[in-house]
Amino acid sequence: MNDQQLLRYSRHILLPEIGIEGQQRLLGARALIIGLGGLGSPAALYLAASGVGQLTLCDDDTVDFSNLQRQIIHRTASVGQPKAASARAALHDINPEVECVPLSVRADEAQLRELAMQADVVLDCSDNFDTRYAVNRACMAQRKPLVSGAAIQFDGQVSVFDFRRADAPCYNCLFPEDSHAAELRCATTGIFAPLTGIIGALQAAEALKLLMEIDRGLGGKLLTVNALDMNIMRCTLSKDPACRACMAL
Ligand SMILES: [Zn+2]
Predict the structure, then answer these.
(1) How far apart are CA 239 and CA 111, in angstroms?
(2) Residue 221 in contact with residue 169, Cβ under 8 Å?
(3) Model confidence over 224-236: pLDDT tens digits?
(4) pLDDT in tens, 60-97
(5) Does the chain have fewer CB atoms within 10 Å around its N or its C terminus?
(6) 236 C-alpha to center of ligand 1: Å?
(7) Mean pLDDT calculated for residue range 104-130
(8) Would you state the pLDDT for residue 249?
(9) Residue 175 Cα, ligand 1 centroid: separation in angstroms?
(10) 126-152 mean pLDDT
(11) For all residues of the chain together, what is the average pLDDT?
């Protein structure tokens, strides 16, 4: 690290759990962020500010006026632009040292596997079940740690599925694909703006620890947040012996 980097990251380096070694790991790390909306915005901002070496920003959507209430990486002037490009511009302003790779595509199963293979950690910040199951399968296949987040109305959740461990439960163990859980969408049900910030920041925190090999946090656990009563709970997940995604490996 040069003098400017030592200064920029000094408040991380001061933490005994991180130090020069942990910060150096971040500088050499690659993260894949799926979705640059309410969750991906704060997650990407914190990963870039923290100096994660390379961020792949995957989103096929464009910025809409109705996004600006919570998707804090995007600006009013960016309405109509691809979210991946808008996010890249904001991240470059915060930390030009971070290499951002914008991908304005809805990655299919094969692309997700390829992208997961190239990443050290994957953040699922998407807003639909199809993508979550596909990202889960890609991370399982490549044995890459997955930080999964979701938020709707006043309720949010975060889990870490660390597929580097053979006994790790997966997203499908928690929410089986064939259970047909009703999908709620922000466009029709609404969402409390700071909840997306809370969940996205939690995802960034878990991703940074995974990259620094700090083995503490939400691995194999589910954290739920209700932002109305501000009730936060954590429970341990277990692998479902009947999980189709686990059995397909
Ligand atoms: Zn499973």
Answers:
(1) 26
(2) no
(3) 999 999 999 999 9
(4) 999 999 999 999 999 999 999 999 999 999 999 999 99
(5) C
(6) 14
(7) 96
(8) 83
(9) 9
(10) 97
(11) 96
* Residue corresponding to tokens 């163990």: 173
**Region for residue 201 given its phi and psi (left: phi exceeds 0; alpha: psi -120 to 50; beta: otherwise):** alpha
Q: Which of 167, 125, 126 is nearest to 143 (CA)?
A: 167
- The Cα 217–Cα 210 span in angstroms is 9
What's the rounded Cα separation, in Å, for the pair 182 and 69? Answer: 25
Among 99, 105, 111, 98, which residue's Cα sits nearest to residue 83? 105
- Quote the Cα angle for 30-34-39, to 5°: 105
**Of 88, 4, 105, nearest in space to 40 by CA:** 88
Return the residue matching tokens 């100096």. Answer: 51
The Å distance, Cα 241 to ligand 1 centre, comes to: 8
CB distance 244 to 177 below 8 Å: yes
User: What separation in angstroms does the CA of 132 have from each of 116, 125, 225?
Assistant: 13, 9, 19
| Ligand 1 mean position, distance from CA 52 (Å) | 29
Reference 34, options 56, 50, 58, 13; nearest CA is 58
Q: Average pLDDT, stretch 194-203? A: 98
Look up residue 135 and give its two tokens: 């990202």
Residues tagged active-site = 186
- Going from the Cα of 235 to the center of ligand 1, the distance in angstroms, rounded, reads 17
Contact 109, 131 (CB under 8 A): no
Structure tokens at 52: 């994660």
For CA atoms 23, 46, 44, 16, give the dihedral sign: positive
The tally of CA atoms less than 13 A away on the side-chain side of residue 145 is: 26
